[in-house]
Amino acid sequence: MYKIGICGAHGTGKTTIGTLLSKELKLPFITNTMRSMWVESGVVDFEKLPADVRAEFQKHAILRQIDRENSEGASGFITDRTVIDNLAYTKLSSNMDGVDLKLYTTLAIERVKNYSHFIYIPIMFEPEKDEMRANLDTRLELAKIFEKSVLKYIAKHRLLQLKSLSNTDRLKEIIDFLK
């Protein structure tokens, strides 16, 4: 059973490749977890919220992600936001620290075990403009957090870092990795 998490900075093509992979593997696609929370809460610009509010938001986001994976993907899933993404965004954009950050990190690390595979998409191109997407200036900072402190929690044999640019080549690269 595949439980595939696609992770990386915003605007790297996670949703696009997740949609294609979901169709190819005929698995449910869990997407827009954070966006739906923003809409429900009336958030227009997440990064303009105070850091303590962003920290609380991230606590709810990881729990909602886990709940969706459990309820919508009991027989397998593909998601374009993983607990690793939640952890990276929390480290980047909130003031969570001390015991709260330690517990959050522990939850994310424990939850990593629930995924069969991770696909990391590094920054390779400029994204399309999207009013709901986080500030594009933070993409490089977020990528550094992924690459220096977050991806280490994933076993190497379960992690593919995409190298391809085209969606067709990316899909082939992923399918080859899953074999």
Structure explained in plain terms:
The chain is an alpha/beta fold and 179 residues long. The protein has one domain (3-178): P-loop containing nucleotide triphosphate hydrolases (Rossmann fold, 3-Layer(aba) Sandwich), CATH 3.40.50.300. It is built from 7 helices and 5 strands; from the N terminus they run βαβααβααβαβα. It has helices spanning 14-25, 33-41, 51-72, 83-93, 98-112, 139-150, 167-178, and strands at residues 3-7, 29-30, 77-79, 117-120, 159-161. A 5-stranded parallel β-sheet has the order 2-3-1-4-5, sandwiched between helices. It is globular, with a radius of gyration of 15 Å. The protein starts with a strand and ends with a helix. The model has no long low-confidence stretch (mean pLDDT 91).
- Main structural class: alpha/beta
Kindly estimate the percentage of residues that lie in beta strands according to DSSP: 5-15%
* SS summary, helix count: 7
Shape: globular
What quaternary form is this?
single chain
- CATH fold-level topology: Rossmann fold
Second CATH tier, the architecture: 3-Layer(aba) Sandwich
Q: Describe the sheet with the most strands.
A: 5 strands, parallel
On the 0 to 100 scale, the average pLDDT is 91
Helix content: 40-55%
